[in-house]
Amino acid sequence: MTIIRNPAWWKEATIYQIYPASFQDSNNDGWGDLAGITSKLDYIKELGVDAIWVCPFYESPQEDMGYDIANYEKIWPRYGTNDDCFRMMEEAHKRDIKVIVDLVINHCSEEHDWFKESKSSKTNPKRDWYFWRPPKGYDTEGNPIPPNNWRSFFGGSAWRFDDTTSEFFLHVFAPGQPDFNWENEECRKAIYDSSVGYWLRHGVDGFRIDVGSMYSKAEGLPDAPITDPSVPYQDGTAFFINGPRIHEYHKEMRQYMYTQIPEGKEIMTVGEIGIGDENDFRDYTSAKEEELNMMFNFKHTSVGECRQCKYELIPFTLKDFKLALAESFLFIEGTDCWSTIYLENHDQPRSVSRFGSDSPKWREVSSKMLATLVISLTGTVFIYQGQELGMPNFKNRKIEQIKCVEGTGTYAAIKRDYGEDSEKMRKYFEALALISRDHGRTPFPWNSDEPTAGFSKDAEPWIDMNESFRDGINAEAELKDKDSVFYFWKKALQIRKEHKDILVYGSNFQFCDLDNEKLFMFTKDSDNKKMFAVFNFTSENTNFEVPDDKASYTLFFGNYANPDGNSRTLKPWEGRLYYMK
Ligand code: ISL
C-alpha cells in the first residue's frame, strides 16, 4: 500500500472529545469528573478511537465552563485531584489511548493569581501581562467609556472597568476572562511553563489549542468600523484574529514544547483557528513551518448563522454546506499541511439535528450517513461524546435553563439593546433552539435509568438532561443492538483504518455535480486507487449519476444493510463509498 503523504499517528488517529462536566459523575455531586472518565475508558476503547481530548478540567470559577482558568497546574476540585488526572492518563495509556488536553491561553480567569497581581496597581510587575487602558472619556452620566468599540463574543463591550486603578481591561470573551498581552515576553514564558510544560512533563500526548488565532492584537487596538449602527459595540475580529505576530508565537511555543518531551516522542497539536483564508491556514499547519499540526475551521459549523449576530439564523443550501465543509481540507492539496474533520464539539449543537434529520424515522439512518461522510474525508477525525449514539438536540428549553455564557450573555445584550418583545429576541430564541452550545453539553446518557440516565446516582445534574435517553438513545441500549448508531461508528472507524490510504490520506478531492441540492458527491484518489462517494441529504429515494459511465464501481461501505451497489437510486439519507476503476 502506498501512502502519498507522510504518515503520522495523529493523522490516522480518531480523537474522541470528552466534556468532563457531563461525561460521568463518580461521586454523585451532579458534575462529571476525572474518576468518572477513567471508569468509562473501556467504553471508549470499545468504540475504537485512538485518543481522547478532554475539555478543560483546571481550577476555575466556571464562568465559561473551565475556559476561564485560575490555575493551569491544578485540577478543579469538583473534577478531582491532580492524582486523579494522572491516573486517568495512566489508565488511558494502558489501553493504548492517547490523551490530549485543552490549552486555553488567549485569556485566563480573573481569579488567576497573575491577573490579581496585575490588577492590584498600575506599577505591578505583571501589569503589562494584560491589556489595561484608561477610559476614552466619561459619558454625560459620568460613566467611563471603554477604550475602543470592540464587542465581546459573549455580548456587550470587550472591556471591563476595574475600580482598583480606574482602568479597563480587555476581554474578548466573558468579563471574567482577561486577555493575555502576548507582546510581553515574560508573560509568554510564564504561560508556556505553567500551561504547556507542566502537562508535557506529566505525559500528555498533545494539545487542543483554544482560540489559537487570537493571541496577536493589532497595534494600538483601533476602533472597529461600524458595521451595525443599531448597537453600541462592533465586530473587532479583524484586529485580533490571525494578527501580525501570531505565527511567530506559535513557532516559539512549538519549539518550547519540544524542549519538554523525551527525544523521539511525537505530540500533536490542533489549533482552534476558526476563520481565515487558505494562506493563513497553510501558514498555521504546514509541516515545515513547525507551528500546529492541524486546525479547526468554523466555516461548516457556522453555515446558517448570521455573521453579525450568531443567534440569528439565515437560510443555507446543501451547496453552501458542501463548500464550507471542503474548506476544512481543500487547502492542504499539494502541500505539507494537514486538516481536521469534525461535525460536533462542545460549542456546537448535535449534527443529526443540524445536518441530518432527527425525526424518529430518520435519526438513526441519517446519523449513520453523517458518520460515513466524516470517515470518507481527508484529515484527522474528531468525534464528540454522544455523537456516536446519534444524540439529537434537546427540545423546548427555557432561557432559565440555559447555562452557556454565550447564550445568556447574548440574551442580556439583546434585552438591553432591543427589548424583550423585539423581533431580534424572537430570532434569538429561534436560533437558540437550534444552535445553543448547551445541546452538546447535557449529561451523557449511559442507560435509561431515571432520573439521570446513569450519569449521576440521584444527584441533580448541573444542567438538565436531554430527554432523548428515554427513547433508547443511550449507551446501554445501543450496546445491546448490533444495528445501533454506536456499532455503525465502530465499523466505520475500522473501515477508515483498513482503507486509510484513500480515506485518511486521499487527495485530489473533486466535487461531482456541486449544484445538486439533494446529493453530496465527490471523487478522490490515492496513488493507485480512486473512490466515488455519494450521500443523499433528503428523506426521499433519489437517483444519482456516476461521474464516469465507462468506469466500473465497487461498493465498499455504506449505511444501509445489503445495498445493491449496481442500483443508481439512494434510499433516504443513504451514503455509499465506491472504488472506481
Ligand atoms: O461558540 C462559538 C462558535 O460558534 C464561538 O463563539 C466560541 O466562543 C469560539 O469558537 C471560541 O471557543 C473556545 O473559546 C471560548 C470558549 O467559550 C469555547 O467553549 C471554546 O471552545 C473561550 O475560551
UniProtKB/TrEMBL annotation:
InterPro entries xref list: GH (IPR017853), GH13_cat_dom (IPR006047), Glyco_hydro_b (IPR013780), O16G_dom_2 (IPR045857)
SMART domains to which the protein is assigned, alphabetical: Aamy
GO molecular function terms listed in the Swiss-Prot or TrEMBL record: alpha-amylase activity; glucan 1,4-alpha-maltotriohydrolase activity; oligo-1,6-glucosidase activity; sucrose alpha-glucosidase activity
CDD domains (alphabetical): AmyAc_SI_OligoGlu_DGase (cd11333)
Pfam families registered for this protein in UniProt: Alpha-amylase
Domain Glycosyl hydrolase family 13 catalytic: 17-441
Domain of life: Eukaryota
GO aspect biological process, one term: maltose catabolic process
Record keywords, A-Z: Glycosidase, Hydrolase, Maltose metabolism
PANTHER family: ALPHA-AMYLASE FAMILY MEMBER (PTHR10357), NEUTRAL AND BASIC AMINO ACID TRANSPORT PROTEIN RBAT (PTHR10357:SF179)
Assigned protein family: Belongs to the glycosyl hydrolase 13 family.
Name of this chain's protein: YJL216C
